Amino acid sequence: MADLADIVATFGQVLHVAGIPATPERRARFAQAVIEIDPTQVTQLYWVGRVTLISSREQIEIYDLAFNQVFRGIIDLTDTGKGDPTPNPENSRESGDQQPAHENSDQTSNQGSAGTSGTPGEKSNEDDESVLPSLLAPASDDERLKDSNFLECTPEELDLIATLVSKLPLVPPRRPSRRSKRHHHGQSIDMRSTIRHSYAHAGDPVDLRYRNEKDRPRRVVLVADVSGSMEPYSRIYLHLMLGAVRALHAEAFVFATRLTRLTKFLAIGDPDAAYQRVAQNTPDWFGGTRIGKTLLEFIRDHGQRGIARGAVIVIVSDGWETDDPAILGQAMQRLSRLAHHIIWVNPRKAATSYEPLVGGMAAALPFVDTFVSGHSLRALQEVMDAIRNAQNRSVMKIQKQAI
User: Which of 31, 39, 303, 372 has its CA 20 to 30 A from that of 46?
Assistant: First the structure.
């Protein structure tokens, strides 16, 4: 039976030959994710590998071919250390004198028990107990976790998605620093270094030294709605908060009828203990929604003290306000003066007929720089891209300041 190291080595080699840079770091991340998630179906394993091993949408088609080649039994995993590397999955069935797999039943029957029951053709009774059924099970074409709305996912799928979300790579936005660093092609002359090196040339500054501006991570603040209407999404975004707090040193808040700061709870080592403490300290979990008053509370108790100043604020809410929407508009106006960039994540935006014309969303939208849905894994990638690219104020905010 193939062990995890053989599986990772074979799959990584197939991806590398196919043109996907499956580096040792990505392979190690894939192996660690498999150990922690312990997938029982090939669909789960597919998404674990897709999240950890590829870096762009252009690689998805090649990844799918490689995954089918390795985990549908085309490769004998017991022989991963023997022979030449696996051919490119795009040419896994080359034209010529190569025979189909079902015509080589005499040969495959002598290869061993592992890695043969997934191939087309005859199945041996001896293979049933020795192969990895969780890796070679057929995947359903209807399971599209990447584009499935979190509202429509089963509890098992939400468990898998939540675990993957907490491990997604988060890149912080950058901001200019007051300090500079030496650079061969800098934009300004380093006078002190230039003069110091001119002593070797009788004081003639023939060797100019330059400096460039440095940048540093910009603060990220996540404020998530955990009211009853956001219940299917709150669980996923709590895992995103966990990853942001640990990777970006972000600040995390949740609200329903009141505001609760979760940063110190999510920063501890054990995720299960963190979520337990979060639930204990959020008594209004899945209650009503008072977005305007809770944002005013955030500004009064935390934002004006420095957390929101120059930060990227990510608000996750469907905009269903039970109070006067004018209060929310007032809070968003004040917040826009403090924050560098405001991202509003509303899962209901995914509906084609959605129009934020009334209520809290209509009051908040004029002060929002980036408006995304974040209703699925693919849409969640748009949220992370919005956080990473929130380096300049949007045209909407410039227009607001001019009014």
Answer: 372
Report whether pLDDT(78) > 70: no
Instruction: Tell me the per-residue pLDDT of 290-333, one tens digit each, with 9 for 90 and over.
Output: 899 999 999 999 988 889 999 999 999 998 888 899 999 999 99
The long-range contacts involving 11-16, CB below 8 angstroms and separated by at least 24 positions, are 11/49, 11/53, 11/66, 11/67, 11/70, 11/71, 12/53, 13/85, 13/86, 14/66, 14/69, 14/70, 14/75, 14/85, 14/86, 14/89, 15/53, 15/62, 15/63, 15/66
- Report the CATH superfamily, name and number, of domain 220-402: von Willebrand factor, type A domain (3.40.50.410)
Supply 325's token pair: 């929407």
How far is residue 92's CA from residue 334's CA, in Å, rounded to a whole number? Answer: 59
Nearest residue to 2 (alpha-carbon basis) of 63, 106, 81: 81
3-state secondary structure of 189: strand
Task: Sketch the domain layout of the chain as residue ranges.
Answer: 4-143, 179-216, 220-402
Residue 266 contacts residue 274 (beta carbons within 8 Å): yes
pTM for the model stands at 0.58
- Lookup result for tokens 């966990």: 242
CB 266 within 8 A of CB 241: yes
